[in-house]
């Protein structure tokens, strides 16, 4: 008896139905890429967390510099440094937004890949093949 995922064979020895080489290649490629996508997703998540922490540190430092500037008896011009910190904070927020968008696209891609893989497995298991498949 033919196992799951293997092609059934008629009495004449010709394939009746089974996965196409293209389907097998696509599924293998998806399985090959899945760990890399998941690893990339976890690294992006870690970078986003560190970006949030950096943004908080910049905010604290800018607040502290403003307080020091107000408390000084001698006029120290710390405004340029505060502006540089705020500019750095703006860039951190921008990079964080870019990473967040990339991570969301990666999450959607991973979801659609998993959905397509599940759909193809269900088709293979049930013996239903897409139109135009040479297995008909």
Automatic annotation (TrEMBL):
<feature type="coiled-coil region">
    <location>
        <begin position="85"/>
        <end position="119"/>
    </location>
</feature>
<keyword id="KW-0770">Synapse</keyword>
<protein>
    <recommendedName>
        <fullName>SNARE-associated protein Snapin</fullName>
    </recommendedName>
</protein>
<dbReference type="InterPro" id="IPR028119">
    <property type="entry name" value="Snapin/Pallidin/Snn1"/>
</dbReference>
<dbReference type="InterPro" id="IPR017246">
    <property type="entry name" value="Snapin"/>
</dbReference>
<keyword id="KW-0472">Membrane</keyword>
<dbReference type="Pfam" id="PF14712">
    <property type="entry name" value="Snapin_Pallidin"/>
</dbReference>
<comment type="similarity">
    <text>Belongs to the SNAPIN family.</text>
</comment>
<keyword id="KW-0963">Cytoplasm</keyword>
<keyword id="KW-0968">Cytoplasmic vesicle</keyword>
<keyword id="KW-0175">Coiled coil</keyword>
<comment type="function">
    <text>Component of the BLOC-1 complex, a complex that is required for normal biogenesis of lysosome-related organelles (LRO), such as platelet dense granules and melanosomes. In concert with the AP-3 complex, the BLOC-1 complex is required to target membrane protein cargos into vesicles assembled at cell bodies for delivery into neurites and nerve terminals. The BLOC-1 complex, in association with SNARE proteins, is also proposed to be involved in neurite extension. Plays a role in intracellular vesicle trafficking and synaptic vesicle recycling.</text>
</comment>
């Amino acid at each position: 008896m033919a196992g799951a995922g293997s092609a059934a064979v008629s009495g004449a020895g010709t394939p009746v139905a089974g996965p196409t080489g293209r389907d097998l290649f696509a599924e293998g490629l998806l399985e090959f890429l899945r760990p890399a996508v998941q690893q990339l997703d976890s690294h992006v998540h870690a970078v986003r967390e560190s970006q949030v922490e950096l943004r908080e540190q910049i905010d604290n430092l800018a607040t502290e510099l403003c307080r020091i500037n107000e408390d000084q008896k001698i006029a120290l011009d710390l405004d340029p440094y505060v502006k540089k910190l705020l500019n750095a904070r703006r860039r951190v927020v921008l990079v964080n937004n870019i990473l967040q968008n990339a991570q969301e696209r990666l999450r959607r891609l991973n979801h659609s890949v998993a959905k397509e893989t599940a759909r193809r497995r269900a088709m293979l298991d049930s013996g239903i093949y897409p139109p135009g498949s040479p297995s008909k």
